[in-house]
């Protein structure tokens, strides 16, 4: 089974490179891992692209102002 | 503590990541924004504890993560809020076709135990190293690896990543049968 591209089936494969307590746990094959990873990042990127709500800019500005006044 | 302009910029720059993490973790935008706001306030009042030169993002994520868990525990005591309750809430939101995949993914993500979800998000989405994620969660590196592994495995089965229609022997049989009929 050489990394044939068409084979997308998730299999439980032993992976000797994994250390710690992973040795005894089932492992996803690389293709399935990549798919999960890609979807995860796509979802996360979409959230990252959202504009920062004004409340956070306002909050930090307010804090800056109030501390500036205190030091006057 | 005074947020100087440079620090203010750094905090603002961290907000998109903090929000993405908080939304993915809690499953709710409103609650996530409250979490991010509390995180910023907590960070500002504890700035003296931040070691300059270390990773500001990792420090902020640690604060947010701890706030999320203390709130989660509190809520659990107050009302019985069984896990997966927000998985069902998520399903209610109608989504247009383009975002259907993400919606499926979010629902699946919400079904994971919180410790697995956060480990996967920190490492797989936010790109922290296993060591950084272990520091953020206050556990051993091996524990993080194990949680990420289990999270991936569970997601794969929830999302039927292994159910590939165009290649599986079953679908070939189905196709053949359909061809006959």
In short:
The complex is a heterodimer of chains A (72) and B (181). Chain A is mainly alpha-helical. Chain A contains 2 helices and no strands.
Characteristics:
heterodimer; A: 72 residues; mainly alpha; elongated; disordered N terminus; B: 181 residues; Rna Polymerase Sigma Factor, Chain: A; Arc Repressor Mutant, subunit A; 2 domains; 9 helices; globular; RNA_pol_sigma_r2 (chain B); DNA-binding (chain B)
Structure overview:
The complex is a heterodimer of chains A (72) and B (181). Chain A has helices at 30-49, 54-71. Chain A is mostly helical. The N and C termini of chain A lie far apart (73 Å). Chain A is 53% helix and 0% strand. Chain A has one domain. The longest helix of chain A is centred in the middle third of the chain and has 20 residues, at 30-49. Chain A has 2 helices and no strands. Chain B is an all-alpha fold and 181 residues long. Chain B has 2 domains: 1-81, RNA polymerase sigma factor, region 2, helix turn helix motif (Rna Polymerase Sigma Factor, Chain: A, Orthogonal Bundle), CATH 1.10.1740.10; 112-181, Arc Repressor Mutant, subunit A. Chain B contains 9 helices and no strands. In chain B, helix 1 crosses helix 3 (56-78), helix 4 runs antiparallel to helix 5 (100-110) and helix 7 packs across helix 8. Chain B is globular. In chain B, 34% of the residues are buried. Mean pLDDT of chain B is 81; it is low at 91-100 and 164-168. At the A-B interface, helix 1 and helix 2 of A face helix 1, helix 2, helix 5, helix 6 and helix 8 of B. Chain B: It comes from Microvirga puerhi. Chain B: Residues 104-152 form the RNA polymerase sigma factor 70 region 4 type domain. Chain B: Keywords: DNA-binding, Sigma factor, Transcription, Transcription regulation. Chain B: Residues 16-77 form the RNA polymerase sigma-70 region domain. Chain B: This is RNA polymerase sigma factor.
């Amino acid at each position: 089974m050489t990394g044939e591209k068409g084979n997308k089936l998730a299999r439980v494969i032993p992976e000797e490179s994994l250390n710690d307590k992973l040795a005894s746990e089932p492992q996803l094959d690389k293709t399935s891992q990549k798919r999960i990873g890609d979807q995860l990042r796509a979802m996360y990127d979409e959230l990252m692209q959202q504009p920062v709500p004004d409340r956070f800019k306002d909050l930090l500005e307010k804090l800056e102002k109030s501390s500036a006044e205190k030091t006057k | 503590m005074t947020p100087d302009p440079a620090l203010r910029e750094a905090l603002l720059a961290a907000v998109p990541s903090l929000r993405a993490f908080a939304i993915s973790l809690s499953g709710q935008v409103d609650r996530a924004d409250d979490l991010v706001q509390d995180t910023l306030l907590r960070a500002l009042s504890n700035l003296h504890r931040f070691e300059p030169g270390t990773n500001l993002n990792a420090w902020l994520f640690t604060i947010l993560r701890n706030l999320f868990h203390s709130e989660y525990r509190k809520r659990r005591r107050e009302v019985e809020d069984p896990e997966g309750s927000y998985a069902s809430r998520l399903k209610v939101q109608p989504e247009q076709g383009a975002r259907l995949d993400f919606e499926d993914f979010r629902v699946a993500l919400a079904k994971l135990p919180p410790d697995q979800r956060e480990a996967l998000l920190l490492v797989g989405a936010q790109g922290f190293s296993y060591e950084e994620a272990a520091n953020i969660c206050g556990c051993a590196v091996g524990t993080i690896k194990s949680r990420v592994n289990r999270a991936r495995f569970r997601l794969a089965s929830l999302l039927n990543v292994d159910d590939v229609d165009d290649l599986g022997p079953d679908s070939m049989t189905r196709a053949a049968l359909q061809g006959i009929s």
